[in-house]
């Protein structure tokens, strides 16, 4: 059994954390940068640790590292050496681990130890052009393998509990990541979550059922699901995934607001996250959290019913 299966054997729902980038932005840190939230790793590591800790205090069982947009190439473009860039990627895991240690030290009663998930963002995050919501990379699977190989090895060397292979817009990128995990002999359980355009399709237009069917045969895939997706599509997407696999389903959609990439702003109203998250559990999800524009408050709302 992997750590997800072990935890789900004694706990009905694994509560994930919420947004990182929009949360540090709400606390006054600008993410208007090609590195996006990853620049906090060298500008405000204290803030990175603080946000992780606040999600744990809200009831999260998992904190996800600030490595979504962290790549050796990206840091080197900002003037860091290759060695410094590698250290920053590993630091993302270390900060999350430090937050877990602080959280456990705060608690008087014994409890389950939280997990650290290493965020493995898509190639589109490195491009910083929104292509993680389209999948139109214009490169093949071998090129994606080359892109992910170094970062995955660096993240794994810092010993996270899980890999969060997230916001994937196309199945070819999931295939590339699986190839890296096998070629590098990385044994850390991974979840694979896709960005989705509607109630049945991932961002490049492929049916999510096709992705789930393929990942069902992949031992490295400990959970399958979606993130960075409009919440109104989640129940239907869970149903599509459930028809193809018995693996745990992971969902952490956006708040319900809509992102305008042209002016990098959010519009509309957020959903009542705690209430609708109950429906996702009824539909079959076992790992539940939030993505863009969700906060510790939304995670606390989920934990309030998930941990009763």
From TrEMBL:
One of its GO terms (molecular function) is zinc ion binding. GO terms for biological process: methionine biosynthetic process; methylation; S-methylmethionine cycle. Binds 1 zinc ion per subunit. Residues 2-306 form the Hcy-binding domain. Its cofactor is Zn(2+). Zn(2+) binds at residues 228, 291-292. Keywords: Metal-binding, Methyltransferase, Transferase, Zinc. Pfam families: S-methyl_trans. This is S-methylmethionine:homocysteine methyltransferase. It comes from Centipeda periodontii DSM 2778. The lineage of its organism: Bacteria, Bacillati, Bacillota, Negativicutes, Selenomonadales.
